[in-house]
Amino acid sequence: MKTFKCETPILKDKFEKHYFYKDKLLSIINNQEEYSKNYNNDKLKKCDWNESKNFERLWVKLIIDDLRKQFLKFADYLGFKKCMIYELWNQQYENQGEHGWHVHGHNYTGVYYLNFNKDCAKTRLLDPYTKKYFMDIEAEEGDIIIFPSSVIHTSQVQKTNFLKTIVSFNISFDDIKKDTYESINKEVKIIK
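RESULT FIELD:
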């Protein structure tokens, strides 16, 4: 099989409403049941992945409109008009907690670092083309990171007693903006 490498961006931005939502979200998440269905030897304290398509959960209803605005900001930067949110869930990690190597569906995935400090386990990315580790995401609390869903990634082992809490999501961008489309056509004409 012949392969061709395609570079695509990983984006990071501050969630503008982080401090408005942080305590409210943590209060709701901390009152969730413990997570008992760990897969692939994952060790998570709390996770509501099984409800990821349910947008009627209290914490989701609280934050969804402002998350959608943030995702549209990413879409605009990438040259798209639309962003659809397919799944949204939270995860908590205690000391020795981890989430093994995995990929997601749709065209982008990401992490909102809701409760996080410099000692928390980082998200590590593996290049799907070379199958080699290429990045530990340098995130701070309040950051949202997005990357292509085909990028293999993991949350490394948590080695602190700090309760790391994240919100993860699967999204798809669609409908190329007119100026992006015109720019692409201009580039294609130059190449011909």
